[in-house]
Amino acid sequence: KTTLGISVGTIYQGSLISLLTGCGSDSSNSGHVEIHVGGLMVVDPTLCLSCRRCEIACVWNHEGGASPSLARVKVLKNMNYGPYGVQANFEQQRGECGDKTIVPDTCRQCDVCIKVCPQTAISLNTETGAKIINQQLCIGCGYCVDKCPQHVMTLNINNNKAIKCDLCDGEPACAQVCPSGAIKFYTWEQAETALEQYEKFTAIL
Predict the structure, then answer these.
(1) Could you give the CA distance from residue 93 to residue 106 in angstroms, rounded to a whole number?
(2) pLDDT reported for residue 70
(3) What is the DSSP string of 83-121?
(4) Which of 8, 12, 141, 196 is the most exposed place for a label (fewest CB within 10 A)?
(5) pTM tops 0.85
(6) Counting runs of H as helices and runs of E as strands, what totals does the chain give?
(7) Sign for the pseudo-dihedral over CA of 139, 143, 149, 155
């Protein structure tokens, strides 16, 4: 754990941000995101608008396209009925078809994927705390995808390689374009409170 801060600038120089939102990730619109080594991206479900701009920004930043299925942050799968899918009491659940609370999934940068990878293709970025996939070593076996506790790792349908959140090498695209400030990078100390809030809204009613 550390609170060492690294200031980073707006990564799209206004082009993608203007296209998606016209604003930064908070009301001050300062154009900067404060990154703390060894922290987490966490979503505040009470602020998420389900606009999915974070997904588009993520894919744009990593793949140069706009297919949300390749996003490292997952909004769509929880958008309608919440994290557990449709249940008998669906009208009381989370999501657009329930109480309107959206609970996107984000990588918690645990070490499960590192431990299960048979190719040792996943390693720690000591500057950001993110777990990084070496695309040259990845064979697309899917072990990491299957074992991911948050179910946010996927296989890229274009090359059959595993993909996950890498915190954009210290410049998180999703936080840059979120119009409500729902998704932010927290220090480990801050993340504890943020995750408690998140877990509250992922519980089955």
Answers:
(1) 20
(2) 92
(3) TT---TTGGGSSSTTTTS----B-----SHHHHH-TT--
(4) 196
(5) no
(6) 7, 8
(7) positive
